Amino acid sequence: MVMNSVPGDAPSRRVVLRNADLRNLKPVLQAGVGVRAPLRQNLRRFLTDDLGIDPAYVEDRLQTVFLDGSPVDDFDEAAVLPGCTLALSGAMPGLVGATMRRGGYFARLREGIAYDGANGEGENAPSEKPVVFVKLFNRALDDLARVLAVGRPLLVEWRWLKDLPALENSGGDEADAVWLTINFAD
Length: 186
Hints:
Elements (H helix, E strand, L loop, with lengths): L11 E6 L4 H10 L1 E4 L4 E2 H8 L4 H6 L3 E4 L2 E2 L7 E2 L4 E5 L4 H7 L30 E6 L1 H12 L4 E4 L19 E8 L2
Parallel strand pairs: 1-10, 7-8
Antiparallel strand pairs: 2-8, 2-9, 3-6, 4-5, 4-7, 9-10
């Protein structure tokens, strides 16, 4: 997400989409969306309690996770803070994938860049509305797009919404970002 801070005055929109429109949301979810978040929580609780991801999926399928650009191995030790950026992915192919995979044999090759609990207060400037920026990739994008998108306000840069037919002619171009709440009709 390009936003360096959370716009306090971002407008809100509600939209009802068809299931077929989910494909138009995938580039938005890959670029990153803001999700309201608690002030501090461990990564596992944020994923399961706040994002609503099934605990078994978190344990078995989220193989590559970055918190503010650092790969994370221990979901219970990693702290999710306002302004941080969280990237979620399934297993990635090749040597890079094997190296970045959570708890993998080659994880020791990335010791210098791994999340160590002292990575700061999040990349983005803090605001009065605690927000975590979430990005989904590969298998996690396919599996979790609907889980992340439905029924919760998402902070989205307006430029990403031009391909959503339900938002045509709804204004908003004057705002950099919008809090978008999505539901599906079918």
